[in-house]
Write a structure and sequence with these properties.
Elements: E1 32-36, E2 40-43, H1 44-58, E3 63-66, E4 72-76, E5 89-97, E6 102-107, H2 111-122, E7 129-133
Antiparallel strand pairs: 1-6, 1-7, 2-5, 3-6, 4-5
Helix pairs in contact: 1-2
Length: 137
Amino acid sequence: MLMPSKVKHRKWQKGAVRGIATSCNRVSFGLFGIQSMEGKWVSARQIESARKVIARSLQKGGKMWIRVFPDKPVTVKGSEVPMGKGKGTVDHYVTVVKPGTVLFELSGISELDAKAAFHMASYKLPVKTKFVSRHNI
């Protein structure tokens, strides 16, 4: 699974997902992409699950780019732990996805195949998505 090898601060504050994406909002590497339409946290497990679905549909043809990386640690306190006693341990990593962020890109396959792959991958993601191509952005 995706996770950072080294972080400056082990535990982060939650923050909020505000505004629209100003970077990573265009198809830059491939010809087709899947773009988020709402802001949420996307976990490393969800990214990996969507990646597997897309890779299965590629069948050794085409190239895929993952445009997001989970670098935000999420902490969880243990069960039956009383209030207080500090912040919990790091449980998993997420990426903050704003509306308009391109999550995955593809090239080397037809538009119909790319649409089908992204349609299956959208079921694995917690955000509403839309299919975009380099020409219609």
